[in-house]
Amino acid sequence: xxxxxxxxxxxxxxxxxxxxxxxxxxxxxxxxxxxxxxxxxxxxxxxxxxxxxxxxxxxxxxxxxxxxxxxxxxxxxxxxxxxxxxxxxxxxxxxxxxxxxxxxxxxxxxxxxxxxxxxxxxxxxxxxxxxxxxxxxxxxxxxxxxxxxxxxxxxxxxxxxxxxxxxxxxxxxxxxxxxxxxxxxx
Length: 186
What we know:
- With 186 residues, the protein is mainly α.
- The chain has helices spanning 2-8, 12-33, 37-63, 87-96, 107-141, 143-159, 163-168, 172-181.
- The two termini are 21 Å apart.
């Protein structure tokens, strides 16, 4: 609901600027109080962690065998998985010493784990087609409706989920179907 009303506002730039000012004030407050928890949490979880996990996936799978979607339901079990663990758990084991750690990554790292540079290219084509599809629906439904339906799935694809998982189990297909059957603006 927040994103729906946020994009209905006439001047998004003012609210974007207010958000930036708030984050700067949060950083200054943390500096004065010698308590960097909130600022650190924001920077580490939103910016640094996804980039680091992408780098770990690329580093590991550039030297090791790729999955080629063998651990996905899409292959119907016809391909033998290269590893007994999922890619997130392999990275957890190799870089953090814990195979129970699920080092989830977004479309770049997971695409690379699936098929190297070809996987990243393939995922980028699918995501580009999805964004073009969504852009077409902003003309009939309006940007606030489309953003409200897809902001969370798109952020999840970018930061912490494989594209196939997003499509099949995280609700992206459901959101697309909901968008298609959503009544258009009169």
